[in-house]
Input
Amino acid sequence: MPPRILVVDDDKAIVKVLTAYLEQSGYQVFPAYDGEQALHALRRERPDLVILDLMMPGRDGWEVTSLVRADQSLAATPIILLTARVEETDKIVGLELGADDYITKPFNGREVVARVKALLRRVRLDQAPNAAPHILACGGLKLDLDQHTLTVDSAPVELTRTEFNLLEALLSNPGYTLTRDELLEKAVGYAYEGLGRTLDTHIRNLRRKIEPDPDNPTYIQTVYGVGYRLTGS
Output
């Protein structure tokens, strides 16, 4: 069965273009034109991934993302947000709500397909049996790779898929500086110019969740001009 993609945008021309690119790449595509239709399609079709426009009448992309992440039966569905808005705060809100990726309009159809492939590959890797250590720990951090959970000083902390992958990469290489491109490859599945600010947003969100003082991080240290490394014991 080909992967099933739900494309949601109130602009039918955009849905048509994305559908053509995705179907040409072997995906099965379901269209929706507003947030309410998107939620019905999610529950009915159980797609493998959602491409979701942010600015829609009625339920917008932020609300749909929030509702999906709050629904246990849908929460693991990968979401790529699509929007003409380029403000950094919009990206931060979308990623904080649990979106996995973010594409701005106008977009290149081939790039969208590449992002879809990379995100689906990440999901498959996340679900694959892991022969590596099942629990990674550093200081008060304990990341369970089987249960896909994190505790900080024994308290459970919710992470998005990308945050989990970033923390796994850092915990797997304690004391080692990972470059920005290395982290992007491990956490997102690809790296390209311009994605660095998205990485910084994910790191900032992660610090807020795991650091006693996010402004003076104990665990995730910035190595200026290179990337990030995990410290602590």
In short: The mean pLDDT is 86. The longest strand covers residues 4-8. The first helix runs from residue 12 to 24. Residues 52 and 81 are 5 Å apart (CA to CA).
